[in-house]
Structure formats: C-alpha cells, structure tokens
Amino acid sequence: MPFQKGHKFSKGGARPGAGRKPSQTTQRKRFLEKYPDAFEKLLEAEYKKGLQGNSDSAQYVMDRIAGRPHQSIDQRTKLTLDLTGDDLALAIEEAMQEEALLLGPGGTKPLPRLENALDLDYSELE
What we know:
Elements lengths: L23 H11 L3 H14 L3 H12 L18 H19 L11 H4 L8
C-alpha cells in the first residue's frame, strides 16, 4: 500500500522552499518592479542626511552621482641589501648552491662571475 501524500516516506511533490534560489539580479529586478521609485527615495533621503552634516551620507551620494575616483596602487617593490665581507660571500655561495639544485647536474646556465665586479677574494668558495 503506497504512503499517503505528505507522509515522510512519500515520493515526489513540491516542497516549500525547494528549487534554485533566485540570483541577485533577479531579486533586484523583482524589488524594482514591486517598488519602482525606491532608489530615488532612498537616494533623496541620503542626500538630505548629507545636507544635515552626515559625512558618510554625503560621500555615498557623491560616489553615486560622480563615481568614485580612480585609485592607482604602486605595486613595485625595492629590495635593498647591505651585505659586506662574510655576509656577501655567504649570500653568493647560497645562490650558487640554489642554482645548482635548480639546474641539476650538467646545468647549462651558470651564474655570472661576480668576484671581478666587486674586487673581492672569493677563492675559498671554489
């Protein structure tokens, strides 16, 4: 005997809240269909608050009307190292070891020789 409609083991049938939820665009369209002048009224209320001295409301209205100003962010970074003597020798040795690990045996791209450019003695590194 099949279960009656509404029984917890019955199959099929629509359930309240079932289905895909509407997207934000659909919700916005439905809201504006239901309240066509809501945007103008809310913006006018914010404008009045801004005139009374509420700086957040004034900023919001100006952002809506004129748009926000373009913000550029400098993403360049500078790396400054102050290495001398033993610190510099250690840094060069570690860089050479890292390159050897990256290239593997018989690597084809050796590091440029820096000892001539810096006029320092690196003979013990070899």
